[in-house]
Amino acid sequence: MKTWKAVFPALAIAGAVGLAVGQQPSPVMAIKAGRLIDPETATAAANQVILVEGEKITAVGPNVAIPAGATVVDLSSLTVLPGLVDAHTHMALTYKEQPENYYYYLTYVMESTPLRAIQAASNGIQLLNSGFTVVRDVGNNALYADAALRQAIEQGWLPGPTVIPSGPMIGSTGGQYWPTPEMYKYHNIMFPEYIDANSPDEIVRAVRENMLFGARTIKLCVDCKPWGYSVEDIKLAISEAAKGGCKVEAHVQTIEGAQRSIDAGVYIIAHNTALTPEHHRQMAEKGIFLAGTDTPFMPYRGSEAAFKRTVANLRDAWEKKVPLTFSTDMDYWNERMKDPKSGEWLSRGDLTINFLETWKAAGIPPADILRAMTTNGYKAADIILQRGPIKPGFYADLIAVAGDPLADIDALRGVSFVMKNGLVFKNNGVMVPEKFFNPGPVKTPNGRWTR
Ligand SMILES: [Zn+2]
User: Fold this and answer.
1) End-to-end distance of the chain based on CA atoms, in angstroms?
2) What's the confidence (pLDDT) of residue 98?
3) What is the CA(402)–ligand 1 centre distance, in A?
């Protein structure tokens, strides 16, 4: 990974923003953007100045005066846009093709919860390096490692995207597993990969527990088993989740499960494989987000036949005007995940951005792909009132690329600048993250699970 150079931190940040070593940075930062994209309208404004004070944007425009003493970040040769969103990933799960063959019992048995939590932290940094400033982390997350990582990032322990964690997926007996009787009954193998919830009382308890332990969204296994959830079950989860400010995502893998999820009015449906054109029509009508998990056909993943189906399904959802998000379901690794030219390992960020291949194959215009990766992602993550738009009052989460993603979406493969919460994480293509690291929970004075 060429951009992962070791850089002496103090020199790097000073050089990056044009400061002499030892000079204290001003609390105001002025970013000169050559072009500034508004993905909502698919327009770009030339020569804009963005003022950032602390964590937030305070002014944007062509004639914004740069205060004396402000630190100037010159991105005048680049295109600036909001950070990207992966609406479906699993940072604390990386199951191996061999010997696991895509079942992750072995990961669960052989990789400890602390190890998986550390993997999640690494994956978060890799995703941020590729421009993903928000991720929805929805299940299989090593005993709430997703929520712990969210908390650690929010408190200022380390850099990473804004994490919208779900905690364990809630399902009826068996979740996505088919365990043996002894593993199920005597060794409690379901938890913490899944929470079994088999009655209205258990559904309410499971939703409450996930929110208590830091979830920001609730994920239901609607039809992982033939005895999955009814419309009434799903509605109950939605109303209970709403009490804690959470929206509900339905994992869907059957036609019937899709219809029950739509009828119940879930906020997001994960996986597009079982959805029919009629489902897409209903989702568009109801404004239900799709996190399709649109896997590309790559030397390390997929098949041509599966890819064709995925592309056709994505295309149909786009034609029906379903609110689309960019979503990957990344949770795997194998020894073919290398750059074919350099032979270097692809990062989790590289693997994530490769999902663009599916969107391009579906013939979706760059402006709509970009909207899925930003505006719709922020809405699906339910944080659009705080993050996303590059406007005064919003958190300063923004990235910069050479070229124009509105004309060539592959420009997003070259993210050279990343700002998260007003701090420069990457500049000139090099990570400069030392300002994110702190010796304590410097940003959480109000208690453990502040919302
Ligand atoms: Zn998933």
Assistant:
1) 36
2) 76
3) 32
Distance in angstroms (rounded) separating the CA atoms of residues 381 and 424: 23
Of 69-83, 137-151, 433-447, the range with the lowest mean pLDDT is 433-447
Model pLDDT, residue 254: 98
Separation CA 49–CA 85 (nearest Å)? 24
Q: Ligand 1 centroid vs 28 CA: distance in angstroms?
A: 40
Ligand 1 center–CA 445 separation, angstroms: 33
Asked if 128 and 425 touch (Cβ cutoff 8 Å), the reply is yes
Q: Report the separation in Å between the CA atom of 175 and the middle of ligand 1, taken as the mean of its atom positions.
A: 13
Output the CA 276–ligand 1 centroid distance in Å. Answer: 20
Query: Any idea which residue has 């790559």 for tokens?
Result: 298
- Residue-wise pLDDT tens digits, 179-206: 999 999 999 999 999 999 999 999 999 9
Centre of ligand 1 to C-alpha 235, Å, is 22
Distance 103 CA to ligand 1 centre (A): 13
Side by side, which strands form the sheet with 289-291?
A: 194-196, 169-171, 217-221, 247-251, 268-270, 289-291
Q: pLDDT tens digits, residue range 141-171?
A: 999 999 999 999 999 999 999 999 999 999 9
Query: 3-state class of 332 per DSSP?
Result: strand
For ligand 1, the distance from its centroid to the CA atom of residue 138, given in whole angstroms, is 6
